[in-house]
């Protein structure tokens, strides 16, 4: 039951994640902007940036904002996620992966073999399956 995803879809998700990082990240504390694009099985794509709050504890990652947007809009089956991150105002260097908390939350709501596309430019990414990022995570399976 390997998730199949086309090159065109990967490219589209990469572009939307990169755009979301620049347009949606609200990071007054760290300046580290993250963008995410989550593809639902129904074809909808939910994009988000990370949001920092003073005191840090209530801050939230782009991946979870995208996931919670989707869930709250009635989308609860997912096909792929693209993510990117780095200091705003600088070119991206390296492949940002979801943090531990996001890996667990994604594992709860997404298929364990869902592709996670960690991108630094369109067509330039590392692709993992969710279960590679969090082996033995708590899932609905
Ligand atoms: Zn996170």
UniProtKB/TrEMBL annotation:
Pfam families: dCMP_cyt_deam_1 (PF00383). The lineage of its organism: Bacteria, Bacillati, Bacillota, Clostridia, Eubacteriales. The keyword Hydrolase applies. Residues 9-141 form the CMP/dCMP-type deaminase domain. Keywords: Hydrolase, Metal-binding, Zinc. It comes from the Bacteria. This is Cytidine deaminase. InterPro entries: APOBEC/CMP_deaminase_Zn-bd, CMP_dCMP_dom, Cyt/Deoxycyt_deaminase, Cytidine_deaminase-like. The keyword Zinc applies. Gene3D superfamilies: Cytidine Deaminase, domain 2 (3.40.140.10). Its EC number is 3.5.4.5. GO terms for molecular function: cytidine deaminase activity. Belongs to the cytidine and deoxycytidylate deaminase family.
């Amino acid at each position: 039951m390997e998730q199949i995803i086309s090159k065109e879809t990967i490219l589209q998700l990469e572009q939307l994640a990169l755009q979301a990082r620049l347009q949606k990240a609200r990071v007054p504390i760290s300046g580290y902007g993250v963008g995410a694009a989550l593809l639902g099985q129904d074809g909808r794509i939910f994009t988000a940036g990370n949001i920092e709050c003073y005191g840090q504890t209530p801050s939230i990652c782009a991946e979870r904002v995208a996931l919670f947007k989707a869930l709250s809009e009635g989308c609860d089956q997912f096909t792929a996620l693209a993510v990117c991150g780095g200091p705003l105002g600088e070119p991206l260097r390296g492949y940002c992966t979801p943090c531990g908390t996001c890996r667990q939350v994604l594992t709860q709501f997404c298929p364990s073999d869902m592709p996670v596309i960690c991108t630094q430019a369109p067509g330039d990414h590392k692709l993992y399956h969710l279960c590679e990022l969090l082996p033995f995570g708590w899932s609905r399976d």
